[in-house]
Amino acid sequence: MPKEKFILVSLKEEESKELAQIITNRTSRKILDALAEKESTESELSGKLNIPISTIHYNLQALLKAKLVEADEYHYSKKGKEVLHYKLANKYIIIAPKSTFGLKEKLKSILPAAIIAIAGSFAIYAYSIFQKEIFIGTQLRQARTFAEEAAVDAAPLAVEIPHSQPAIWQSVLHEPALWFLFGCIVTLILIIIGEYIYHKRNR
Question: Which of 44, 52, 133, 164 could staple 40 via S-S, CB 3.0–4.6 A?
Fold first, then answer.
């Protein structure tokens, strides 16, 4: 299961107060700055920052609880003790007001879908541009060949081409990436409205 790339907290939750206390703590900030350069153990942080290891341990536990740092790797010391390697969690912190229909849960479920929708739209747009370039290149090569074989008909053909160009609105209507993005936006809006109505009725 992929890890979430953001931490979503409400201004009215105790979690936001704890997070604010951790971020404003001078020792915690020093630890975060050190881990931004290189992942380290408690003893390495203690030596580098010249801070007692007990203080380092206390602040690291708070940072772990706040999900600002991770300790997925470890090694064993000469005494056979497990030594954790700490590193930054690389997560975005999103602070939002608490709503009556669970804004926190809705954002957690909708944000990934919105990101996928935007990425999908760009992918479709890039593919359509690539296909258009291939089509235009083919048309130009065919026109060049035709002009070389029938120079007499080249001038009338050059005059007719601009009249066959579609209008701007027609190009928009036939743009698959725009329709895909529009469909995703409409779907997300309908989901939000549906969830709002459901929670309002069940309050």
Answer: 44
